[in-house]
Amino acid sequence: MTAAPAKPARKSRFDMPAILAWGIVVLVVIGLFSPVFKPDISVMEVPRLAIAASILAIAGVRYELGFMRNWFGDLALGVITAIAATFLLGTIAHHAGEAGLGYWALVAATWASAWLFVERLASWKSATPLFNRLINLAIPALFGITILVLWQAVVTGFAIPKVLLPAPSEIWLRLTSSGSILWADFRQTFMKAVLFGYAAGCASGFLIAILVDRIPFLRRGLLPIGNLVSALPIVGVAPIMVMWFGFDWPSKAAVVIIMTFFPMLVNTVSGLAASDAMQRDLMRTYAAGYWQTLFKLRLPMAMPFIFNALKINSTLALIGAIVAEFFGTPIVGMGFRISTEVGRMNVDMVWAEIAVAALAGSVFYGVVALIERAVTFWHPSIRG
């Protein structure tokens, strides 16, 4: 007696793209029949917003009905979303602080349209690896752009004071007008303190890990000390380093060394223990000594662990150097600039420094990740 074949699972109609598509339509209807601005200016009195609302509604209905559900239709949806966002930001710039229910409904519709576009973009597949890599880069970039658009709309729509939260446009203006100051701060903090401290801290942690692995009893002595050093608060260590090494970048590099030493030590020790007994026995059958086993088996097996530490330290180093500059530095540096401009209430300059630090940290992390892919190409996580 054979069992009856199982019925195929019924596909639910209430999937995320469908919810987004109908959500766009509902929000556009609310925007059309609600006051866009507080003085009760109807959306129909603002032709550009009416056009943006109409095309957003058409885009939502187009997707749900299945019309042009292909790459051309997806690109059209992205262009429509960009046009709507431009119209909304351009209109609110002349009505700062006067946004009403209709405006926020249209902003929410634009956000849902952007979400739907990214959802469709993530489904694109190609036999060309370069195309897939470009799509993987485009998705986070579009997500970041969406966050900036929402940030601009919220700050302008509610007329949030600049001292509390500047708009992205104001931060961009500060970035373009203060390039020389930002470059000097970046060179002082990142190119001197961060890079030197990162290299010295990671190298010392790696070498001590080799020593701990070679001399087993040091594991019980050095690892607890390393744990103690990693638990030291930056706000307590930084003033001491300033007194020891002066106000210039060497004291900040010393703080970075302390912060990056322990993650490298622990990860390298764990990585050196990653090879199993059968692999080590095989090396002994080949009459391989300690150093041959280390370089040909154990270090290659430890590379994923080592690069995990390098990636973690790439962000810790920048944080440590910036915080250390709060406790004494020459009149240059990212941490010095942040602490000084906060006292002057120049919050746009503070955000400009934060943007530079975030960009530098992201690029630094990305470079380490690219090197990891080249070195650990054999690892299943990279091959997959």
Describe it.
Residues 1-14 have low confidence and may be disordered. This protein has two domains: 16-160; 175-383, MetI-like (MetI-like fold, Orthogonal Bundle). By secondary structure, it is mostly helical. The protein is flat, with a radius of gyration of 28 Å. It is built from 15 helices and no strands. Helix 4 runs antiparallel to helix 5 (129-157) and helix 7 (179-214) runs antiparallel to helix 12 (290-324).
How large a portion of the residues is in β-strands, by DSSP E? under 5%
Mean pLDDT: 78
Largest sheet: none
| CATH class bucket of the largest domain | Mainly Alpha
Q: Helix amount, in percent? A: over 70%
**Residue ranges: pLDDT <50 for 5 or more in a row?**
1-14
Count all strands and give the number.
Answer: 0
* CATH fold group of the largest domain: MetI-like fold
CATH architecture of the largest domain: Orthogonal Bundle
Given the C-alpha coordinates, what overall shape results? flat
Distance between the termini: 42 Å
Elements, N to C (H/E): HHHHHHHHHHHHHHH
The tally of structural domains comes to 2
Query: What class, by secondary structure content?
Result: mainly alpha
